[in-house]
Design a protein that fits this description.
The protein is mainly alpha-helical. It has one domain. It is 70% helix and 0% strand. It is rod-shaped, with a radius of gyration of 34 Å.
Length: 84
C-alpha cells in the first residue's frame, strides 16, 4: 500500500481523499433521508388511522336524523335583543 501511495501525485492523493469524504457524506445523507422517509410514512399511517376514526364517528351521527330534519331549534330568545 505504501508503494502505491508513494507513486501517486499530490493531485491524485487529494482526489482520492475527496472521493472518500464524498462517499462518507453520501452515506450519512442517505441515513438521514431514510430516517425522514420513515417519519413521513409513520405520519401518513397516523393520518389514515385518524381519518378512519373520524369517519367511524361521523357515520352513526349522519344516520341519526332528528325529528325536525336536522334543522336548528329556534326559540323566542333568538329574537330578543340583548339587554344592556
Amino acid at each position: 500500500m505504501e508503494n502505491a501511495l508513494s507513486k501517486l501525485s499530490i493531485t491524485e492523493l487529494k482526489a482520492a481523499y475527496l472521493n472518500l469524504v464524498l462517499q462518507n457524506c453520501i452515506t450519512e445523507l442517505k441515513a438521514v433521508v431514510y430516517d425522514e422517509l420513515a417519519k413521513v410514512e409513520q405520519s401518513q399511517a397516523n393520518i389514515r388511522i385518524l381519518h378512519q376514526e373520524l369517519r367511524n364517528k361521523l357515520q352513526p351521527q349522519q344516520q341519526e336524523v332528528p325529528q325536525n330534519g336536522g334543522l336548528p331549534q329556534v326559540t323566542q330568545s333568538d329574537f330578543n335583543p340583548p339587554s344592556l
